[in-house]
Amino acid sequence: MYDGHLASTGLTTTQFSLLSALARQGAPVALMALAKEQVLERTSLYRALHPLARAGLVRVIGLTGRRAKKVELTARGRRKVARALPHWQRAQDAFLDRVGEAAWHRLSAQLVGIAHAERDT
Fold it and tell me: Which positions ≥6 away from 59 have C-beta within 8 Å?
């Protein structure tokens, strides 16, 4: 459902989620920290970021020495998130209309619990 609503923006749900997370951070984020926050395996994150970097929506910063790489949202990426947000909101509204707010709150709480359990491993 979300991918369908986001299709006209050229983003998948996963890409929108990554861009939104970077927008919330407002500063470069270590790739490992982003992977952990998004509950993604590191190589899956790299594969998801590659087309975003190629499109100029994110920039991967290669730091010297032993420090980890970081990723940041570009100005173009911020504009893309702003244009995509109404589409995501329409998808969220349609989802809530179908499942109801009470069911969404229960599901959301369960998903947060699962994500925290995964992050703690």
Answer: 53, 71, 72, 74
For residue 58, give the 3-state DSSP assignment.
strand
Name the residue type at position 19: L
The model carries a pTM of 0.85
Q: Which two tokens stand for residue 95?
A: 């989802």
H/E stretch holding 60: strand 58-61
d(CA 104, CA 110): 10
Domain encompassing residue 74: 2-119
- The one-character DSSP state at 9 is G
CATH number for the domain including 53? 1.10.10.10
Average pLDDT per 10 consecutive residues for the chain, totaling 121 residues = 93 95 93 89 91 96 74 96 96 92 88 76 63
